[in-house]
Amino acid sequence: MRRAIGRAQCNDASWHGVFGGLYLPHLREAVWLNLAHAERELRRDEKLTAQVLDFDADGSDEVWVHSAHFSAVVAPTRGGAVVEYTIFEAGVNYADVLTRRREAYHDEALAQAAQKATTDIPHDQGMASTSETVSASSDFFIVEFRTGGGPRIGRRGPRDEML
């Protein structure tokens, strides 16, 4: 378990930059795999348990449901979205997705690209596109309730603006 925790603390998946860091899914997957291995050992023989706590320190409580087989975090203030769902045996967090947003360095990269009429490096060889962003939330299993065609019930946040 100690070795898995140490491996999960690798910061390669935490930094941000033009050529990778947190934008590279295989780096994030390796961190989640090691966290899943450590938590599997920690929760061996544990029965299904639920805790209410401010899991992500955003000022709102989440519900953390876990057992010897999985860990899930549900955010009631975000429409009951599942924001973390890790199956220990598989070592996969199914909520490990990243919403790409326009970054400050995109404008500079686009300006430089516009100055070149042609490029020696094809788009699909090594560098993420600076002209494409994805506008989708990483939350899943969201159920929206509306009454009589009225407005959406629940708190809107910055992620809702992207939808």
Structural class: alpha+beta
Strand element count: 7
The H-and-E topology, N to C, reads as HEEHEEEEEH
Please list the strands of the largest sheet in the order they lie side by side: 3-4-5-6-7
Q: How large is the radius of gyration?
A: 19 Å
Query: What is the distance, rounded to the nearest whole angstrom, between the alpha carbons of the first and last residues?
Result: 39 Å
Q: What is the typical, i.e. mean, pLDDT?
A: 78
* Total number of domains: 1
Given the C-alpha coordinates, what overall shape results? Answer: globular
Percent helix, as a range, is 10-25%
Strand content: 15-25%
Q: Biggest sheet, open or closed, and with what strands and sense?
A: 5 strands, antiparallel
> Which spans of ≥5 residues are poorly predicted at pLDDT below 50?
124-136, 153-163
Helix segment tally: 3
Question: Can you give a write-up of this model?
Answer:
The structure is a single chain. This protein has 163 residues and is of the alpha+beta class. The protein has one domain (2-101, 134-146, 155-162). Helices cover 23% and strands 18% of the residues. It is built from 3 helices and 7 strands. The protein has helices at residues 2-8, 25-42, 104-115, and strands at residues 16-17, 20-21, 49-53, 62-66, 70-75, 81-87, 92-93. The protein has a 5-stranded antiparallel sheet, with helices on one face. A two-stranded antiparallel ribbon has the order 1-2. Strand 6 (81-87) and strand 7 (92-93) form a beta hairpin. The longest helix is centred in the first third of the chain and has 18 residues, at 25-42. The termini are far apart. Mean pLDDT is 78; it is low at 124-136 and 153-163.
